[in-house]
Write a structure and sequence with these properties.
255 residues; 11 helices; 15% strand; AB_hydrolase_fold; 3-oxoadipate enol-lactonase
Length: 255
């Protein structure tokens, strides 16, 4: 599937693909774009299938579909290898690429994500909720997982913007990606990921807490390391942008 993407930075820079969360669009990466461009990277953001300005798929999605979307995007841009930075569903996409297409990667940064998240039933039920009750009901729950209560209280405008981001996501696109998570189990493939990998977790992330999620990934991927960021819930790159950006840029430079 052809995904909607935005490219910033020098045409000859090493490419960094930013892959986002379910229920988001590519604007969630705004805090990271300018710093990465300033470091000389060509930054490629895209909307997951059925999200933002990317078309809604005809049926359910799998992780192979989402990973394949990134490979098609790289091919369309004429990019052989890229750094991939993914958060939540984007991190799952990154892990799939690390397992199934490592020759296309320079490095991975896996933020606030999991190799196996919840039960299939819970994700299929969330997809049904999106289709039957609408995306506002989904956004009401997701905003509380994405950010800590203190951040939400002190950022009322941003709260409205991120709530709208999810509420405006097509229900069918959201449900398709719920299916991808429901059918995902990447744990067994993690030891085969050969590229330099950084795992970043939010200390206050209720969706993918460090213990049981980030720690599992970091322990399984060869030579990976885990960084836990205080004061960050699920969209840690937005809530703690300076620290997340510092971790990302340092890892890319080393890789």
């Amino acid at each position: 599937m052809q995904v909607h993407s935005v490219v910033d930075g020098p045409a000859d820079g090493d490419v960094v693909v930013l892959s986002g969360s379910i229920g988001s669009n590519l604007t969630m990466w705004e805090p990271q774009v300018e710093p990465l461009v300033r470091e000389g990277y060509r930054v490629v953001r895209y909307d997951q299938r059925g999200h933002g300005r990317t078309a809604v798929p005809a049926g359910d999605a799998t992780m192979a579909d989402l990973g394949g979307d990134v490979l098609e995007l790289l091919d369309a841009l004429g990019v052989d290898r890229a750094h991939v930075v993914g958060l939540s569903l984007g991190g799952m996409t990154g892990m799939w690429l690390g397992i199934h297409a490592p020759e296309r990667l320079r490095s991975l940064v896996l933020c606030c994500t999991s190799a196996k998240l919840g039960t299939p039933e819970s994700w299929l039920e969330r997809g049904r909720t999106a289709r039957e009750q609408g995306m506002t009901a989904i956004a009401d729950g997701s905003i509380e997982r994405w950010f800590t209560p203190d951040w939400l209280a002190s950022h009322p405008q941003e709260r409205r913007e991120y709530h709208h981001m999810t509420a405006a996501t097509p229900a069918a696109g959201y449900a398709a990606c719920c299916h991808a998570i429901a059918t995902m189990d990447l744990v067994g493939g993690l030891p085969s990921i050969p590229v330099p990998t950084l795992v970043v977790a939010g200390a206050d992330d209720p969706a993918t807490p460090p213990e049981g999620h980030g720690s599992v990934i970091a322990d399984a991927v060869p030579d990976a390391r885990l960084e836990v960021v205080p004061g960050a819930a699920h969209l840690g790159n937005v809530e703690q942008p300076e620290r997340f950006t510092e971790l990302i840029t340092t890892h890319l430079a080393k890789a």
